[in-house]
């Protein structure tokens, strides 16, 4: 076949499948994998011990399997928000360099609708009054400061 580095070639092909799962969420393979393994936070679940070897390998690409350094797949893709429908507010890296659920863990824990897209959240973030109605309980003063910090971070994002 003329392929000298079969391992690297296999990782590249798995990376292509990962890319396909990101951009073609209406495609047949995505829907099949979603039905088989489920979806959480806008991503397909890994499947645990009951998944196929192919799916396990594909899932591990996010951790950088085969490259020896971190999350090479995640680090080498760029998310374009567009209208915000396909981007998870809490689970995707779309502002800054870390997921908002990790940057603001307390707010994430207190938020009612964790599966919201950016489009849904940005409408809600229009005023603090609307934002407040989505918390499990009334926020403490220091938690409100985190809300202000998050709002400043999101202020310049235009959908």
Explain what the structure shows.
This protein is mainly α and 159 residues long. The mean pLDDT is 77. A hairpin with a 2-residue loop joins strand 1 and strand 2. A two-stranded antiparallel ribbon has the order 1-2. The protein has two domains: 6-75, no CATH class; 100-155, no CATH class. It is built from nine helices and two strands; from the N terminus they run ααββααααααα. The radius of gyration is 18 Å and the shape is elongated. The protein is 48% helix and 3% strand.
Characteristic terms for this protein:
159 residues, 9 helices, mainly alpha, single chain, 2 domains
Short overview:
This protein has 159 residues and is mainly alpha-helical. The chain folds into 2 domains: 70 residues, no CATH class; 56 residues, no CATH class.
Low-confidence segments, given as residue ranges, are none
**Portion of residues in helices?**
40-55%
Through-space gap between termini = 46 Å
| Biggest sheet layout | 2 strands, antiparallel
Describe the protein's topology.
Elements: H1 6-23, H2 28-37, E1 39-40, E2 43-44, H3 53-60, H4 72-75, H5 100-103, H6 105-110, H7 118-124, H8 128-132, H9 141-155
Antiparallel strand pairs: 1-2
